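Long-time lurker. I teach an intro course on protein structure, and each term I like to show students one example going from raw sequence to a predicted 3D structure in token notation. This year I'd like something fresh instead of my usual example. Would anyone be willing to generate the tokens for the chain below so I can use it in lecture? Attribution to the forum is fine with me.
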Amino acid sequence: MKPAAKGARPRTLARAAAVQALYQCEHAGETAETVIDQFVRHRFGRMAGLLDAGESEVAPPDVPLFSRIVRTATAQQDVVDPLIAGVLPEAWPMPRLDPVLRALLRAAGAELWMTDGPPARVVINEYLDVAHGFLEGEAVQMGNAVLDRIARTLREGEFAGEARA
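-- Reply from a regular --
Happy to contribute to a lecture. Here you go:
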């Protein structure tokens, strides 16, 4: 991932870290708790080291949000993955997705699944910002389309009266 931009927000950093953690869980076969511990103990403290000399410190990621996203995405993967798979184009089943895009969709899907989180449009916009740090072009566009469809499924009331995109 690209270094955090100066002034990056703690919740945005938590979401970017959650994508990385979910990627690591899948790629290395590690549990959510192991990866959360590694991130909190070893990675978050080093974030200040990514800055150039003279820049102000970046606020640390929102650790409770990061942990909740990773735990929800892994604990509810049997719910979130079918939601993602159900809105993917037929030519792009889950296994064919770039693993980083898959992790991003799982993190965002988990956060959309949480009923006490921010509005769906906020979640989508945040993950699109994160996507631009990890992905390019069509992958970002596909992520946007998939997240919009998942949000309209999980949070239908927030889109009442709107036509589907």
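Some talking points for your students: The CA atoms of residues 50 and 135 lie 20 Å apart. The chain has seven helices and no strands.
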